[in-house]
Write a structure and sequence with these properties.
Elements: E1 16-20, H1 26-30, E2 36-40, H2 46-51, E3 56-59, H3 74-92, E4 99-103, H4 105-120, H5 134-157, E5 160-172, E6 180-185, H6 189-198, E7 201-215, E8 221-234, E9 244-245, E10 252-253, H7 258-272
Parallel strand pairs: 1-5, 1-7, 2-3, 2-4, 4-5
Antiparallel strand pairs: 5-6, 7-8, 7-9, 8-10
Helix pairs in contact: 3-4, 3-5, 4-5, 5-6
Length: 281
């Protein structure tokens, strides 16, 4: 066999993105696993922290940029640097954390935009480098550095990452399908595509909707969807949700539970993959 070639799968934690609408329970669901550390950029962790004393929390919450600052975006740029510094600490220092939750990716993107603007002394991303999309290229580089740092923690330290993100409605127009609206990641279009490629699973969390048939006047029936207090995790793409997974998962996980999700991932790997071995040198 040639040097550097392997025939067995690596045994590494999967990289998961969990997204959904505001109030869908993303933070609570993502932080439900023991030995977790949360990078809190969304300022929505207080209720979870009040219930879980084992949860570690590192705050890096974006502030609204002010044009009265002497340097463009400096406070948020410093917070971006603090996130990257914290990632290095997680990599180099001893701790017992098994899960890393970034909540939320879209708020972290705001910090990354500030970092780019501060470096180039511009107030808006569109004017960085003279425009023509150069600001977006720098932004993708910042976010790629974050994904790379998380990958290093996953592959070298055995920490399982969960990236939380808000959703937005986008218009999907593909040559082989009629145009339709779908829930997608609330990120820059190119950053969203990069994150989708990086992740092993992109999951959508939503309230479970029950269809109820009602009978009206003259015996006419009407089907209506009613939201319940239960939550469901969608794991595969549908006409209304942009999801994916690299495992043999059911299309829905209900009730929504990250412990159940990771159990299903483990079962899928045990069925489909060979034992892991180290790369040849």
């Amino acid at each position: 066999m040639l040097d550097g070639v392997r025939t067995k799968a690596k045994d590494r934690p999967g990289k998961t993105v969990l997204f959904g609408e505001p109030g869908s329970g993303k933070t609570t669901t993502a932080c439900s696993l023991s030995k977790s550390v949360l990078i809190n950029t969304d300022n929505g962790a207080e209720e979870v922290l009040a219930k879980d004393e084992d949860l570690w929390c590192f705050d890096a919450i974006p502030a609204e940029p002010s044009n009265t600052d002497k340097e463009p975006h400096k406070p948020n740029s410093d917070k971006w640097d603090s996130i990257m510094g914290f990632m290095r600490k997680l990599y180099t220092e001893e701790h017992d954390r098994k899960y890393l939750i970034l909540d939320a990716a879209d708020a972290a993107e705001r910090l990354a935009i500030s970092s780019v603007c501060h470096e180039h002394k511009e107030w808006i991303l569109e004017t960085v480098g003279g425009g023509y999309g150069k600001g977006t290229s720098y932004l993708r580089g910042r976010m790629f550095a974050l994904w790379s740092a998380i990958t290093a923690l996953s592959e070298h330290k055995g920490i399982t990452p969960i990236i939380v993100c808000h959703s937005k409605i986008v218009r999907i127009d593909k040559p082989h399908l009629e145009p339709y609206d779908s829930n997608s990641l609330k990120l820059n279009k190119q950053v969203s595509a990069d994150l989708n490629e990086w992740a092993d699973a992109v999951l959508f969390l939503a309230p479970f909707t029950k269809v109820v048939t009602r009978t009206g006047d003259f015996g006419k029936t009407d089907n209506r969807g009613i939201k319940t207090n239960d939550r469901v995790i969608y794991t595969s793409a549908t006409m209304g949700v942009e999801c994916k997974n690299r495992y043999s998962l059911p299309s829905e996980i209900r009730p929504a539970d990250m412990g159940t999700y990771f159990k299903l991932v483990k079962e899928s790997r045990n069925q489909n993959k060979k034992p892991a071995i180290k790369e040849t040198k």
